[in-house]
């Protein structure tokens, strides 16, 4: 049992520091909305991971292998992420213009009520539309499942340990990011939000283009 937990710890650390859209949005949420808001967002992310793990475990590997490389899923997920990034980019500017009440003191912003349920859903959907996450969990169960003898209890402990380690490290990231909040003016926060929107847009473009690049690489193989 303890050996299974030790096997999961490095994967939890790897997952926590994987650079992706969720990574950047989590930090942005912690900086702009605070600790509890970031926890709500991250809980949605982890729930999406749990859903992927369940899909991987209860679905045949051959079917999942076909699904995870389906260009239509990359296209759909990429377009959704691109649309979200673009709309966020436009909305951030409008919100900034509304929120800044005094031109001589741009560090003052009206405090808005945080919708934790909406943040949970945002975290879930942002992680779930990234089909690459499905590929990650499929790879994990293909590699480590046989080492766990595909025993349900051991697999549950293994994946739970990965998620817990991942979540705990994310709490540390949230606390570090939250400390920056008091040092940032409204203009700095506005710039951070704009950069995050651009990053999401680029990740969307990457998802849309990924099947094309994979086809090119496969055609180059001799």
From TrEMBL:
<keyword id="KW-1003">Cell membrane</keyword>
<feature type="transmembrane region" description="Helical">
    <location>
        <begin position="72"/>
        <end position="90"/>
    </location>
</feature>
<dbReference type="InterPro" id="IPR001123">
    <property type="entry name" value="LeuE-type"/>
</dbReference>
<feature type="transmembrane region" description="Helical">
    <location>
        <begin position="116"/>
        <end position="143"/>
    </location>
</feature>
<feature type="transmembrane region" description="Helical">
    <location>
        <begin position="6"/>
        <end position="27"/>
    </location>
</feature>
<feature type="transmembrane region" description="Helical">
    <location>
        <begin position="39"/>
        <end position="60"/>
    </location>
</feature>
<protein>
    <submittedName>
        <fullName>LysE family transporter</fullName>
    </submittedName>
</protein>
<dbReference type="Pfam" id="PF01810">
    <property type="entry name" value="LysE"/>
</dbReference>
<feature type="transmembrane region" description="Helical">
    <location>
        <begin position="155"/>
        <end position="175"/>
    </location>
</feature>
<feature type="transmembrane region" description="Helical">
    <location>
        <begin position="195"/>
        <end position="214"/>
    </location>
</feature>
<keyword id="KW-0812">Transmembrane</keyword>
<keyword id="KW-1133">Transmembrane helix</keyword>
<keyword id="KW-0472">Membrane</keyword>
């Amino acid at each position: 049992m303890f050996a299974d937990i030790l096997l999961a710890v490095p994967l939890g650390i790897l997952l926590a520091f994987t650079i992706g859209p969720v990574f950047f949005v989590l930090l942005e949420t912690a900086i702009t909305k605070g600790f509890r808001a970031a926890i709500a967002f991250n809980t949605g992310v982890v729930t999406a991971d749990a859903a992927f793990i369940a899909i991987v475990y209860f679905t045949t590997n051959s079917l999942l292998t076909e699904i995870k490389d389906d260009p239509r899923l990359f296209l759909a997920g990429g377009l959704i992420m691109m649309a979200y990034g673009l709309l966020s980019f436009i909305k951030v500017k409008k919100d900034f213009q509304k929120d800044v009440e005094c031109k001589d003191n741009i560090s003052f912003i009206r405090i808005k009520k945080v919708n934790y349920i909406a943040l949970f859903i945002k975290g879930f959907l942002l992680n779930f539309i990234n089909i690459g996450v499905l590929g990650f969990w499929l790879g994990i169960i293909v590699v480590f499942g046989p080492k766990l003898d595909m025993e349900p209890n051991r697999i549950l402990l293994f994946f739970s340990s990965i998620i817990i380690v991942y979540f705990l490290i994310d709490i540390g990231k949230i606390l570090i990011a939250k400390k920056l909040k008091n040092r940032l003016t409204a203009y700095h926060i506005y710039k951070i939000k704009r950069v995050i929107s651009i990053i999401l847009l680029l990740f969307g473009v990457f998802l849309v283009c990924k099947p094309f690049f994979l086809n090119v690489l496969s055609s180059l193989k001799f």
